[in-house]
């Protein structure tokens, strides 16, 4: 059994609610990452992967303070999607659905390659909300874009997927951000 911990980066939205391509973590995002690090400090990981986008790398670095592991950085874990990807109330145009379909294939291939190259290991992967949503949609609904809108992936949440010896995926935990609940209140 291979266990993959898929982690969404910490909060990186600025005061205006914007997050650009390479936004750093904001102060709240750093607190979230510290809480995640505390939660995972006793876990033993065999391999660590991370997106090449700054907010994901910063989250990874904070968690890795407890583990001191070599990190495998790859753009294949970078954020995907557009503002017009399948969303409630927005009619998706054909080009967006084609982009979504291509992203689904690439993400699932990356996930399977990571799982298959780390058989019987525990692997932590720092990535992005849409990346995780696309993967879950592929596993649960064969990539149906209508399913994509139903998933919310919280910042620094644990999304644990086991891949058994027969290659079947088992979603163990989805969007578990219990470590941040004390800090969710904003005035």
Question: Descriptors for this entry?
Answer:
single chain; 187 residues; alpha/beta; Rossmann fold; six-stranded mixed β-sheet; 5 helices; 35% helix; 18% strand; globular; His_PPase_superfam
Structural description of this entry:
Substrate binds at residue 55. InterPro entries: His_Pase_superF_clade-1, His_PPase_superfam, Mito_Ser/Thr_phosphatase. The protein has five helices and six strands; from the N terminus they run βαβαβαβααββ. By secondary structure, it is of the alpha/beta class. The protein has a six-stranded mixed sheet. The longest helix has 23 residues, at 94-116. It is globular. The model has no long low-confidence stretch (mean pLDDT 91).
SSE blueprint:
Elements: E1 2-8, H1 27-40, E2 47-50, H2 54-64, E3 71-73, H3 94-116, E4 122-127, H4 129-141, H5 145-148, E5 158-163, E6 169-176
Parallel strand pairs: 1-4, 2-3, 2-4
Antiparallel strand pairs: 1-5, 5-6
Protein name: Phosphoglycerate mutase
Active site: 9, 79
InterPro entries: His_Pase_superF_clade-1, His_PPase_superfam, Mito_Ser/Thr_phosphatase
DSSP, total strands: 6
What does the largest sheet look like? 6 strands, mixed
User: What is the average of the pLDDT values?
Assistant: 91
CATH architecture: 3-Layer(aba) Sandwich
Radius of gyration: 16 Å
Overall structural class, as computed from helix and strand content, comes to: alpha/beta
GO molecular function: hydrolase activity
Active site: 9, 79
InterPro entries: His_Pase_superF_clade-1, His_PPase_superfam, Mito_Ser/Thr_phosphatase
Keywords: Hydrolase
């Amino acid at each position: 059994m291979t266990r993959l911990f898929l982690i969404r980066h910490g909060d990186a939205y600025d005061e205006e609610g914007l997050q650009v391509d390479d936004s750093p973590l904001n102060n709240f995002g750093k607190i979230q990452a510290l809480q995640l690090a505390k939660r995972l400090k006793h876990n033993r990981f065999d391999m660590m992967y991370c997106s090449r986008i700054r907010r994901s790398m910063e989250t990874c670095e904070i968690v890795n303070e407890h583990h001191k592991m070599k990190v495998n950085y790859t753009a294949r874990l970078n954020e995907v999607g557009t503002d017009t990807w399948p969303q409630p109330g927005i009619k998706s145009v054909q080009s967006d659905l084609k982009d979504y379909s291509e992203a689904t294939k690439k993400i699932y291939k990356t996930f399977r390659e990571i799982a298959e190259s780390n058989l019987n290991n525990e692997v932590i992967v720092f990535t992005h909300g849409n990346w995780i949503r696309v993967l879950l949609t592929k596993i649960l609904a064969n990539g149906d874009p209508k399913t994509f809108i139903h998933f919310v992936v919280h910042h620094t949440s644990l999304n644990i997927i086991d891949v058994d010896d027969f290659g079947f995926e088992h979603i163990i935990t989805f969007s578990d951000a219990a470590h941040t609940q004390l800090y969710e209140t904003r005035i």
